[in-house]
């Protein structure tokens, strides 16, 4: 290997580099995952005395080098112009390098080349991807615009001026289609209101004026078509007659009287011509037959429709009677229901009348009771006035009849017996609890009122002091007997 000389300011150094495989059986060097758009490689294992010029001379055979970033720790980063140059540089990984003939450790090294992730590479790759995406979007948009149906012409907004223009166009046969489309768009937009209703009505009326013209044109075209059909039939019939005449000539020429006098070539031509004419006649006959069949089928279809209509009408007439019977049944059922409802209403009315009579009787009884009470009250008032005039004390009048009923007399006897058994007295609650065993309807207030009216039979005393103060009733009938 030829030495490579590099001249510096200090001296001229003679350096050589040697590339060679250390062993053919070694596994391929491990590499990291390739970053997207990678143009930069990492080169490790450089000699300590290796310079940037040596690195350039070693790796420029892989492609154009844009930049080299060398480190003091025996490695560098090389950025190439294209991505495929990185693949070439990876093949140099695993080779040994030696500067000159020196065996010094600083002049030797083993190269390790791997992918490197650089921001410049990633930025360029992203820019390229964005450019490709823009081109793809542009291509798709152009394709969509090419396949898109043409847009309808824009419709002007409604105004009185435009309305007058459209009304004039509606009257012109050549501009009718354009004007009708504008009118339809205005109506669908909701331009019709109370102010513009008359204008729209006039335009619709103008559009309606073309109906008669179109009907007349349609009738004229149908008439022309019928005339053309007649002409076609006449011409076709004349052509078929001529074909038949020609075929008759061929058949007459094919007879033995004339056929023997023709040559072989002439006979062949006559037979071919006859076959062609017969095929034409047969095809025309089949066409006429198909047309006749279609007409016959149409006639049969019309007949079937007429028969179906007649059958449906007959069914409708026959179905009228069952419908009437069903309606009569429904009416009868409704009438029966109304009668039953009427009977129920009458029964309810009678029941209400009976209740009303009963209420009237109760009212009369209550009025009689009120009159009796009023009479008793008047008698009592007269009695009170007479007692006051005679200067009798009020206590004697009250005590003259303290027990008003037999029930109260029984209560007095039971209470007297109970208190006689309890000489130290008993509270009103204790007395009432005893009476409730005999009758649950006895009220405490009534018992207390009854005992307070009989002052010579029962008396109330206060026993206890402070919180233990209690009211007790005692039987004093024997003492009261002496007083009265």
TrEMBL record:
Main localization category: membrane
Coiled-coil segments on the chain, per record: 204-238, 285-376
Family matches, as SMART domains: RRM
Localisation: Cell membrane; Secreted, Extracellular space
GO process annotations (BP): ultradian rhythm
Cofactor(s) the protein needs: Cu cation
Domain RRM, residue spans: 39-118
One family name in Pfam for this protein: ENOX1
InterPro entries with a match to the protein in the record: ENOX, ENOX1/2_dom, ENOX_RRM, Nucleotide-bd_a/b_plait_sf, RBD_domain_sf, RRM_dom
Origin: domain of life: Eukaryota
Molecular-function GO term, any one: RNA binding
GO cellular component terms listed in the entry, alphabetical order: external side of plasma membrane; extracellular region
Keywords: Biological rhythms, Cell membrane, Coiled coil, Copper, Electron transport, Membrane, NAD, Oxidoreductase, RNA-binding, Secreted, Transport
Family recorded in the similarity comment: Belongs to the ENOX family.
Record protein name field: RRM domain-containing protein
Source organism (scientific name): Muntiacus reevesi
